[in-house]
């Protein structure tokens, strides 16, 4: 059977708990229907689907949201295993996500034997039970079509998907699931050997437990550990104890016990013995976030939420201690995660001591275990980065140390290194990875040779293109890069990709000069966020110094650059991912087409800093909602006031989409815009879209838009909006300055002093945006809001 035969169009999900319901939700996110089944509640006669229904309802209410849009929940059909098992006979893939007990899973598999057919994929979402144990006693067909598909929680957001085939699994099923997981579900797929808890949990839980053992032994506090082993060591803020709280201490205990029982030959088996204090916490119901208290506890004090930490000595919750060490302060001075880690590991204080000890533990274990649990070191590194959001994988950290012998000596003072590391030093080139961008190779422990690091099919990296000297022009804030096939990429690379004078200058260059060399343009980058908006610091400094001509020129510059994009003679495709806020959103709104990552969060959030969108955002949203009105039946939309009211609500509330799908519903993206689920292929897909538009243009089937006019409702409509604002102010729902900003927004959206019978040009609306922006910048309360965002990162409601 060929890989193409294994096509997944409909899925059966067995188990409607947290994981099962979330898997069904994510399938719905990508347009795949599923049947979600669970057991019939004991003694239940009326609602036999109650458990599955409850699971779906919880997924719909979950935070963070499991669905891109709640509308897609209609793709999920609920039922129960007793009445609806036969309904699975026609699905292409059955994924089992029931309770982590071998006997329960095997009993369910015996029922599935009756409906399994050739071409059907069978899998388990077990987090640790070995695959060969699950399929004991199963038929040859069942065994050939079975593997483990281990998703991480929360399913929508956690990138890692571990695939664990058995010796009997059809290799074509493995290939099909790798492709489906990557291209359709947007996951980072890692192939694991059939060992207990696979790669990520095996190494990650060891790291957690060995750290907890050390903290208890050496007297480190909970908050102290999380500060030391958080972002300064290339990990999320949740670090160790907070991560355990989020995943659940009962889950941690289950995985630890499973490893202790099923890995009797593990060289560090004793580390998987759960400390008695943690075992006691589990027995007392102190399970972490799900129970309201674990290593941390949230309490209300004087109306504010305060987070306390557990004191291991007294077992009482106490105020979080302020953790300050010279090594942490020094490490925070670096943006590069590798340099932060090296700084921590090279320090001479108590924080550096813990960082060195835990790093030595984790790296040694990874090097000892890698050949037994993984096929390549690349899979190990990807599993740790995608499964735990580490900045660097285990062998990437090894390379940091191998290139800094003095720091390596501090981490391993006895000089004893794992056998795999010695092989890299003696038979390799001294590091696990060699080669630059686009030509990276890894040390293959099977052959002691270097092999190319796998890349997605057709994948494009800007780092790789730069290494090939494909940069056409770079002015420090942005670059124009040749992607090949007549397509250029405009990349921003300021901090947070904030829009400054250099970015605006490069937009102009890309359209005016780039159009002479290329047939299409993509605007995208490889940073976590597309753009956080305008450079707020420069705006605030200009306002405080009264440099109004400078601010006006900057705003006008962005407006005109965006108009150049909109009326560019060649197609312009935006490729946003992550946060697309303020001016970043306005750039996307002016492009001809958008190819967005599914996890894209878009919004005009300017009111949060006391201003209104002024780069054409108001104008473009009005045009998009106006187009909606014109496409609907006359008389049902409320005339020219309907688009104004919709845009006013959207912008005044600083609405940010929670996904690219919701961005389409909010009209930040068009219904015709496209969505990609895998970040690694976003630029590839955007380039392909750009080529299609260029070919359509060459064939006379596409052309840039013609200038548009806007018929806005004028002062009467503005009065209606102002009355709404006054009502909210009187009800205490907004502050006085919120109202001031809203009045300016209402004036822009209704056309200022225009007649409701006389259409405005786009430039006239841009003038209104700019006038309102400048007026608000001159107000002290707006400047206070800007300062608050810059200094605290949090909005000020003054």
TrEMBL record:
<keyword id="KW-0442">Lipid degradation</keyword>
<keyword id="KW-0472">Membrane</keyword>
<protein>
    <submittedName>
        <fullName>3-hydroxyacyl-CoA dehydrogenase</fullName>
    </submittedName>
</protein>
<dbReference type="Pfam" id="PF00378">
    <property type="entry name" value="ECH_1"/>
</dbReference>
<keyword id="KW-0443">Lipid metabolism</keyword>
<dbReference type="GO" id="GO:0006635">
    <property type="term" value="P:fatty acid beta-oxidation"/>
</dbReference>
<comment type="pathway">
    <text>Lipid metabolism; fatty acid beta-oxidation.</text>
</comment>
<keyword id="KW-1133">Transmembrane helix</keyword>
<keyword id="KW-0560">Oxidoreductase</keyword>
<dbReference type="InterPro" id="IPR001753">
    <property type="entry name" value="Enoyl-CoA_hydra/iso"/>
</dbReference>
<dbReference type="Pfam" id="PF02737">
    <property type="entry name" value="3HCDH_N"/>
</dbReference>
<dbReference type="GO" id="GO:0070403">
    <property type="term" value="F:NAD+ binding"/>
</dbReference>
<dbReference type="GO" id="GO:0003857">
    <property type="term" value="F:(3S)-3-hydroxyacyl-CoA dehydrogenase (NAD+) activity"/>
</dbReference>
<dbReference type="InterPro" id="IPR006108">
    <property type="entry name" value="3HC_DH_C"/>
</dbReference>
<feature type="domain" description="3-hydroxyacyl-CoA dehydrogenase C-terminal">
    <location>
        <begin position="198"/>
        <end position="297"/>
    </location>
</feature>
<feature type="domain" description="3-hydroxyacyl-CoA dehydrogenase NAD binding">
    <location>
        <begin position="10"/>
        <end position="195"/>
    </location>
</feature>
<keyword id="KW-0520">NAD</keyword>
<dbReference type="Pfam" id="PF00725">
    <property type="entry name" value="3HCDH"/>
</dbReference>
<dbReference type="InterPro" id="IPR036291">
    <property type="entry name" value="NAD(P)-bd_dom_sf"/>
</dbReference>
<comment type="similarity">
    <text>Belongs to the 3-hydroxyacyl-CoA dehydrogenase family.</text>
</comment>
<keyword id="KW-0812">Transmembrane</keyword>
<feature type="transmembrane region" description="Helical">
    <location>
        <begin position="12"/>
        <end position="37"/>
    </location>
</feature>
<dbReference type="InterPro" id="IPR029045">
    <property type="entry name" value="ClpP/crotonase-like_dom_sf"/>
</dbReference>
<dbReference type="InterPro" id="IPR008927">
    <property type="entry name" value="6-PGluconate_DH-like_C_sf"/>
</dbReference>
<dbReference type="InterPro" id="IPR006176">
    <property type="entry name" value="3-OHacyl-CoA_DH_NAD-bd"/>
</dbReference>
<keyword id="KW-0276">Fatty acid metabolism</keyword>
């Amino acid at each position: 059977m060929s890989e193409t035969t294994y096509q997944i169009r409909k899925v059966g999900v067995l188990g409607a708990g947290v994981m099962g319901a979330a898997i069904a939700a994510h399938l719905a996110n990508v347009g795949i229907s599923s049947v979600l089944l669970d057991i019939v509640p004991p003694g239940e006669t009326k609602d036999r689907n109650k458990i599955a229904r409850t699971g779906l309802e919880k997924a719909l209410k979950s935070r963070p949201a499991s669905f891109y849009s709640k509308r897609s929940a209609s793709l999920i059909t609920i039922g129960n295993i007793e009445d609806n098992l036969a309904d699975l006979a026609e699905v292409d893939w059955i994924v089992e996500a029931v309770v982590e007990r071998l006997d329960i899973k095997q009993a369910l598999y015996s029922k599935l034997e009756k409906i399994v057919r050739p071409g059907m994929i069978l899998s388990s979402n077990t987090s640790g039970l070995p695959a060969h144990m699950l399929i004991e006693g199963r038929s040859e067909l069942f065994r050939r079509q079975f593997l483990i598909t281990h998703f991480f929680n929360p399913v929508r957001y956690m990138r890692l998907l571990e695939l664990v085939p058995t010796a009997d699994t059809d290799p074509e099923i493995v290939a099909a699931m790798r492709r489906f997981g990557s291209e359709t579900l947007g996951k980072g797929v890692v192939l694991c050997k059939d060992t207990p808890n696979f790669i990520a949990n095996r190494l990650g839980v060891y790291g957690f437990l060995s750290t907890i053992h050390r903290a208890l032994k050496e007297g480190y506090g909970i908050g102290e550990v999380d500060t030391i082993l958080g972002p300064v060591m290339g990990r999320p803020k949740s670090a160790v104890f907070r991560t355990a709280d989020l995943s659940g201490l009962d889950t941690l205990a289950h995985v630890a016990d499973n490893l202790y029982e099923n890995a009797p030959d593990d060289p560090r088996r004793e580390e998987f013995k759960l400390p008695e204090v943690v075992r006691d916490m589990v027995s007392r119901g102190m399970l972490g976030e799900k129970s309201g208290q674990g290593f941390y506890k949230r309490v209300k004090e004087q109306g504010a939420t305060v987070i306390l930490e557990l004191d291991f000595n007294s077992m009482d919750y106490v105020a979080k201690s302020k953790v300050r060490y010279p090594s942490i302060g020094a490490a925070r001075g670096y943006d590069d995660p590798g340099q932060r880690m090296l700084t921590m590991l090279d320090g001479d204080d108590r924080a550096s001591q813990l960082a060195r000890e835990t790093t030595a533990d984790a790296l040694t274990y990874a090097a000892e275990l890698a050949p037994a649990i993984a096929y390549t070191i690349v899979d190990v590194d990807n599993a740790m980065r995608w499964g735990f959001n580490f900045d660097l994988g285990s062998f990437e950290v090894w390379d940091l140390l191998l290139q800094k012998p003095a720091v390596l000596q501090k981490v391993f003072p006895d000089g004893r290194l794992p056998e795999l590391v010695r092989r890299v030093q003696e038979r390799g080139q001294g590091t696990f990875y060699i080669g630059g961008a686009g030509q990276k190779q890894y040390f293959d422990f099977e052959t002691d040779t270097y092999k190319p690091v796998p890349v997605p099919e057709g994948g494009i990296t800007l780092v790789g293109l730069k290494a090939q000297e494909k940069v056409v022009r770079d002015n420090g804030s942005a670059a124009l890069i040749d992607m090949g096939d007549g397509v250029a990429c405009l990349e921003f690379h300021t901090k947070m990709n904030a829009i400054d004078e250099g970015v605006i200058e490069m937009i102009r260059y890309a359209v005016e000069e780039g159009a002479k060399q290329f047939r299409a343009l993509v605007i995208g980058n490889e940073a976590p966020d597309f753009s956080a908006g305008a450079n707020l610091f420069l705006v605030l400094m200009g306002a405080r110094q009264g440099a109004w001509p400078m601010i006006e020129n900057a705003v006008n510059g962005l407006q005109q650059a965006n108009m150049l994009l909109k009326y560019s003679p060649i197609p312009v495709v935006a490729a946003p991912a992550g946060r697309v806020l303020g001016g970043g959103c306005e750039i996307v709104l002016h492009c001809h087409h958008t190819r967005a990552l599914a996890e894209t969060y878009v919004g005009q959030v300017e009111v949060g800093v006391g201003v209104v969108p002024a780069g054409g955002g108001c104008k473009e949203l009005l045009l998009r909602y106006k187009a909606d009105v014109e496409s609907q039946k006359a008389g049902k939309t409320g005339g020219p006031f309907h688009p104004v009211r919709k845009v006013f609500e959207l912008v005044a509330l600083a609405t940010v989409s929670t996904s690219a799908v919701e961005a389409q519903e909010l009209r930040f993206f068009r219904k015709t815009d496209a969505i990609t689920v895998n970040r690694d292929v976003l630029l590839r897909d955007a380039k392909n879209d750009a080529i299609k538009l260029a070919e359509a243009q060459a064939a006379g089937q596409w052309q840039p838009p013609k200038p548009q006019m806007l018929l806005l409702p004028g002062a009467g409509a503005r009065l209606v909006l102002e009355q709404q604002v006054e009502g909210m102010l009187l009800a205490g729902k907004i502050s006085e300055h919120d109202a001031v900003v809203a009045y300016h927004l209402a004036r822009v959206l209704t056309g200022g002093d225009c007649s409701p019978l006389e259409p405005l040009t786009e430039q006239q609306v841009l003038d209104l945006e700019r006038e309102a922006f400048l007026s608000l910048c001159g107000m002290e309360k707006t400047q206070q809001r800007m300062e608050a965002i810059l200094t605290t990162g949090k909005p000020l409601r003054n």
